UniProtKB/TrEMBL annotation:
Record-given protein name: FAD-binding PCMH-type domain-containing protein
GO CC annotation: membrane
Start and end residues of each FAD-binding PCMH-type domain: 396-576
Origin: domain of life: Eukaryota
Length: 879
C-alpha cells in the first residue's frame, strides 16, 4: 500500500506515538480504576471495542484511528496493574501476550488495511500492501458497500479477525500454512478423528511437560553471569558447560513448542466438538521440521505463524510509509525483515517482564533482532556462493540452485514413493465391451465436460513425470502434468517451455487445442515444440505419433482435439533470455475505447518478441507486456509509438533484466509482483503460484489414493484454484476482419453496461505470430490468420434472474460481434452455448481432414465430448 506523507504522519502520531507517550503520562483515573478494580471488564472493553469498530465504521472513517489510543491506554493500564491481582507469572504472561498483540492487529486491520465486512457478507480490504486481498488489482472489481450491521454473522466475522491470528479460511490467511498431510495437501480429518487425535495430543503433551517439570533443575554453575555474554559463544567454556547449555536449550525449545501446541490443541477441541468450527478451521500449528533448513524457513514455514500477519503489516507501514522506501529495493527488503522481528522482540519482552524477568535482564529483544541479522548473513553467504560457483556458458550465467547444506536438509525429509503405472490400455479395451464412451480428465481447468452422463472418467493428473534429455534440449513428460508443475521441474535444469500462464492447465488438454502462450508471437503455438506423443487408441493399443510415425495422428492431436489418451509428450525445451516487462493501469473507465483502439492498432504490429494483453473491466483497463530478451530502452522505444502513454491517468510500471520466473510472476499477478526482484526471491514467489499438486478429480470411498505431491514438496505449495461458475465467450480476430471503429464502440458500450458487482472481465491478447514458425505443421487452424484473441467472461449469477440477464447479455454480444468479425474461436475456451458452428469455429478449414484422422483411429467415436471431431462429417460442414 502507498501512504502519502501526510497520511503516514497522521497514522504515526495517533497510532504509534500517542500510545507510546501514554507510558510516561499519568493515565486517566477512570482507566486505571477500571483496570485495577475490574480487570476482566477492562479486557472485554479492549477486545470488543475494535470488534464493534470493524463492523459499524466505514473503511475510511476517522473513528478507526481514534479507537487505537483508547485501546492502547486500556492495554497499557492493564499491563501496569495486572501483577497486583494475578499472582501466577505464567498466567500473567499468557494473558499479556494476546492483549499486547491486539494493539498491533488493531492498527494493521483497522487503519492500515481498512478491513471491513461488506453487504455481500464478504471480507474486503481497501488496499493491502503486503497482505493478500479478496479482490486483486488484476480483477479490479470494486467491492460492494460496507455493511455496518451488527448481527450474528458480522460478530462472528469480527471475532475471527481478533482471535484467528493466522486468518484461516480468509483471504488474509498466512502463507505456508502447515498441512494435515504433505502427501495429500487437501486432506483434513473427519470430526471424530480430529477430536481423537487432538485429544490424544493434549494428553500426551500434558504428560510430557509434567515429566519435564518434575525433573531436578539444571546445575546453575553452568549459567553464571560471567558465562552469559551475548556473543561469547563457546569461547572459554568447558566441554561440560557447552553440553549443559546445549541440552538446556534443546529442552527449552522443545518444551516451548509443546506448551504452545498444548494450548492451541486444547482450544481447538471445544469449537469443533460443538460444531461451531470444522477441523479445516484448526490446521496444525507447526510445519514440518524438515522445512527449517535455514533461519528464514524456520520462522516462515516451520514455527507457528500467529504473529506474522499483524507484524508484517505494521512493518510494511514503517518501511514504506514512515521511511518512504520504495518497494523492491534492497533496503526495503531487509527493513521488511528487520521490523517484524523488532516488533516481535518488543512483544516478547513484555511477556518476559510480565512473567517476572527484570527488564534489564530480558534478552528477547536482542534475540529476535539477531534473527533478522542472521537472515541477512545467510542471504549474503548464498549470494557469495552463487557468485563463486556460477558458470559462464556463452552469454548465459548458470547459477547453482541451492546451497549444498540446504539440499541435504531439504532432501532429508522427503519420502520417495513411486506412483503405480495405470493400465490405461486395459481400461480402454474393457470399456468397449460395456458400451460406455470415455472422457479423459487431465485437469478439468475449463468447461465442465469432465463428468458427462454415460461416461467413464480417467484422471491422468498423476501421470506427471518429467525426464530431461542428456543434452537438455528435450523433455519427455507425463500427459497429465500441469503447466505449473512442468515449469517447476524444468526450472531445476535451468530450462523452460513456452506455455501459458495458468498453472493448473493440464498439458495433455493444452496440446489438443494448440496452446496459446505468452511467447507465442515469436515462438508460435505451444504445439510447435511438441515432437512426439504416446497415445492410447480406442483399441487399447499404444501408438507413437510423430513426424515419422503416424504423422496424420501427430498433426491432428496437436490443436485438432483429441483422438486417444495422451500418456506421454516429448517437447523441445528452451532457455529464455532475460526480459523487460511492463504494466500500465488505466483507472478511468472513460478511456477504455481510446486504450482499446490504440492497443489493437499497435500491439500486434510490434516486434515478435513483444507479447501483450489488455484486460478490460466495468470500471478500468490495464495492460501487461513481455518483451522477450528485450531491454528497458527497447521496451520504452516501442511503447513510445503506442500512444498509450499519453492516455489520461495512465500509470506505467516498467521492469528490466527480468528472469523467466520473474517475468511469469509479473504477468501472473502484476498488481502484487510489481518488481523483478532478485532471482532467489523470484523462485520463492514462483513456487507460491506455480508449484501445484495434482488434485484428485472425484475421490470416491473406498478407493486407493495417490499422494498429491508437488514437484518441489519442500517449498511453498500453490493454493488450488477455486471452482468458479462463469459464462464465457471468445473470438479470434483475423487479419482480414479487424475491428472497425463502429464495432469497437459497440463492444465498449456493452462492457460499460455491466456493474462492477457482476465481475465482468475481458482480455484482448495480441497474436500476429511470426511467419518463421507458422508452418501449418499442426492442426491449429488460426496460427497464420489470427491477429488477436478476445475473450470475455462474467459470473454465472447467484440466482436465476441474474443468470438470465448475464446469459442474455452474451447472446446479444454474439449477435453483435459474429457478423462483424467471423466465427473463428479458440478451442481452449470451449463455449457450450456457442452460436456458430463449433467445428468450423474451432478447427476452421481443417475439419474435413480431422474427420478422416478420427475415422482411422477412432471409428466408433469412443473418445468424445459434445464438440469433439466425429468420425463422420458433422452437420453444417461440407467435405
Amino acid at each position: 500500500m502507498t501512504w502519502s506523507p501526510l497520511e503516514a504522519l497522521q497514522i504515526f502520531l495517533v497510532c504509534y506515538l500517542l500510545p507510546l507517550a501514554s507510558l510516561t503520562w499519568s493515565l486517566p483515573p477512570i482507566v486505571t480504576n477500571l483496570a485495577s478494580n475490574y480487570p476482566t471488564h477492562a479486557l472485554l472493553v479492549a477486545f470488543f471495542l475494535p470488534m464493534i469498530t470493524y463492523i459499524v465504521t466505514s473503511p475510511n472513517s476517522l473513528l478507526r484511528m481514534a479507537v487505537i489510543p483508547v485501546v492502547a491506554t486500556i492495554i497499557i493500564s492493564y499491563l501496569q496493574t495486572a501483577d497486583s491481582y494475578i499472582s501466577n507469572k505464567s498466567f500473567l504472561a499468557m494473558s499479556s501476550g494476546p492483549t499486547t498483540l491486539l494493539l498491533f492487529s488493531s492498527i494493521d486491520y483497522l487503519v492500515l488495511q481498512k478491513l471491513h465486512f461488506t453487504t455481500d457478507k464478504v471480507e474486503r480490504t481497501i488496499e493491502a500492501g503486503t497482505q493478500p486481498v479478496v479482490i486483486s488489482e488484476k480483477s479490479n472489481v470494486a467491492p460492494p458497500a460496507h455493511r455496518g450491521v451488527i448481527d450474528t454473522t458480522s460478530l462472528k466475522w469480527a471475532w475471527r479477525v481478533i482471535f484467528s491470528y493466522r486468518a484461516i479460511g480468509s483471504p488474509r490467511a498466512v502463507k505456508n500454512m502447515p498441512k494435515w498431510s504433505y502427501s495429500d495437501p487437501n486432506y483434513a480429518p473427519s470430526r471424530p478423528l480430529f477430536l481423537i487425535k487432538r485429544g490424544a495430543a493434549v494428553v500426551g503433551a500434558f504428560l510430557v511437560l509434567d515429566l519435564l517439570n518434575s525433573q531436578p533443575p539444571p546445575d546453575l554453575s553452568h549459567f553464571t553471569a560471567a558465562k552469559s555474554g551475548q556473543f561469547s559463544g563457546f569461547i572459554g567454556q568447558s566441554v561440560e558447560d557447552i553440553i549443559a547449555r546445549m541440552i538446556t536449550t534443546v529442552i527449552f525449545w522443545f518444551s516451548l513448542r509443546m506448551t504452545i501446541a498444548l494450548i492451541y490443541n486444547s482450544w481447538s477441541l471445544l469449537p469443533v466438538a460443538l460444531r461451531i468450527d470444522s477441523p479445516e478451521d484448526w490446521p496444525p500449528y507447526f510445519g514440518s521440521v524438515f522445512s527449517s533448513y535455514s533461519i528464514r524457513t524456520f520462522w516462515s514455514v516451520y514455527w507457528q505463524q500467529s504473529l506474522r500477519n499483524m507484524l508484517v503489516g505494521n512493518a510494511a507501514f514503517w518501511t514504506h510509509g514512515i521511511l518512504r522506501q520504495k518497494k523492491g529495493t534492497l533496503v526495503a527488503r531487509y527493513l521488511n525483515v528487520t521490523f517484524p522481528f523488532l516488533l516481535s522482540g518488543i512483544l516478547h519482552t513484555v511477556l518476559d517482564v510480565c512473567g517476572g524477568v527484570p527488564l534489564m535482564e530480558a534478552r528477547t529483544l536482542v534475540f529476535f533482532v539477531l534473527q533478522a541479522f542472521g537472515i541477512m548473513v545467510e542471504d549474503s553467504v548464498e549470494a557469495a556462493y552463487f557468485w563463486l560457483f556460477s558458470k559462464k556458458n556463452g552469454e548465459k550465467t548458470e547459477y547453482p540452485k541451492l546451497l549444498f547444506w540446504h539440499k541435504l536438509l531439504k532432501n532429508a525429509g522427503k519420502s520417495r514413493s513411486q506412483l503405480k503405472k495405470l493400465a490405461i490400455s486395459w481400461v480402454v479395451d474393457t470399456q468397449q465391451d460395456i458400451r460406455l464412451f470415455l472422457e479423459v480428465v487431465v485437469i478439468s481447468h475449463f468447461e465442465s465436460w469432465s463428468a458427462l452422463n454415460g461416461t467413464l472418467v480417467i484422471d491422468l493428473s498423476h501421470i506427471n513425470s518429467v525426464n530431461v534429455s542428456q543434452d537438455k534440449t528435450k523433455a519427455t513428460v507425463g500427459g497429465g502434468i500441469r503447466l505449473g508443475a512442468l515449469y517447476m521441474a524444468l526450472n531445476n535444469y535451468g530450462l523452460s517451455f513456452h506455455g501459458g500462464i495458468c498453472p493448473t492447465v493440464g498439458l495433455g488438454g493444452y496440446v489438443g487445442v494448440g496452446g496459446y502462450n505468452m511467447q507465442g508471437r515469436k515462438l508460435g503455438m505451444a504445439v510447435n515444440d511438441v515432437t512426439s506423443l504416446e497415445i492410447v487408441l480406442a483399441t487399447g493399443q499404444v501408438a507413437t505419433a510423430s513426424a515419422t510415425e503416424n504423422p496424420d495422428l501427430y498433426w491432428a492431436a496437436r490443436g485438432g482435439g483429441y483422438y486417444g489418451i495422451i500418456t506421454s509428450i516429448t517437447i523441445n525445451t528452451q532457455v529464455f533470455p532475460r526480459s523487460a516487462m511492463v504494466s500500465i493501469q488505466f483507472p478511468n473507465a472513460s478511456t477504455r475505447y481510446e486504450v482499446a483502439r490504440k492497443y489493437i492498432d499497435w500491439a500486434p504490429r510490434q516486434v515478435k518478441e513483444f507479447s501483450s494483453q489488455i484486460n478490460m473491466y466495468s470500471d478500468n483497463t490495464n495492460l501487461v507486456g513481455w518483451y522477450l530478451g528485450g531491454t528497458e530502452d527497447q521496451l520504452n522505444s516501442i511503447l513510445a509509438t503506442s500512444g498509450l502513454l499519453n492516455v489520461s491517468g495512465a500509470e506505467v510500471n516498467i521492469q528490466k533484466n527480468c528472469s523467466t520466473l520473474n517475468s511469469r510472476n509479473f504477468w501472473n499477478d502484476y498488481s502484487v509482483v510489481t518488481t523483478c526482484g532478485d532471482d532467489q526471491a523470484a523462485e520463492e514467489i514462483f513456487a507460491s503460484y506455480f508449484n501445484v499438486a495434482p488434485q484428485a478429480f472425484a475421490p470416491i470411498q473406498p478407493v486407493f489414493e495417490f499422494n498429491e505431491l508437488t514437484v518441489d514438496s519442500s517449498g511453498s505449495q500453490a493454493s488450488p484454484w477455486p471452482r468458479v461458475s462463469i459464462i464465457d465467450k471468445n473470438y479470434i480476430i483475423q487479419k482480414d476482419k479487424q475491428w472497425s471503429d463502429e464495432t469497437l464502440h459497440g463492444l465498449i458500450d456493452r462492457i460499460g453496461g455491466f456493474s462492477v458487482e457482476e465481475f465482468f472481465w475481458a482480455e484482448l491478447t495480441a497474436f500476429n505470430i511470426s511467419s518463421d514458425v507458422t508452418t501449418n505443421s499442426s492442426a491449429f487452424a488460426w496460427e497464420k490468420d489470427a491477429y488477436a484473441l478476445f475473450r470475455a467472461e462474467v459470473s454465472h449469477g447467484e440466482n436465476a434472474t441474474q443468470h438470465a440477464y448475464n446469459q442474455a447479455f452474451f447472446d446479444e454480444f454474439d449477435s453483435f460481434l459474429l457478423p462483424r468479425m467471423g466465427t473463428a474461436s479458440y478451442a481452449g475456451y470451449t463455449d457450450a452455448a456457442i452460436k456458430s458452428n463449433p467445428y468450423t469455429a474451432y478447427y476452421g478449414s481443417n475439419v474435413c481432414s480431422l474427420v478422416e484422422v478420427k475415422k482411422r483411429y477412432d471409428p466408433l467415436n469412443f473418445f468424445r465430448n459434445p464438440f469433439s471431431i466425429p468420425p463422420t462429417v458433422p452437420e453444417g460442414v461440407t467435405c
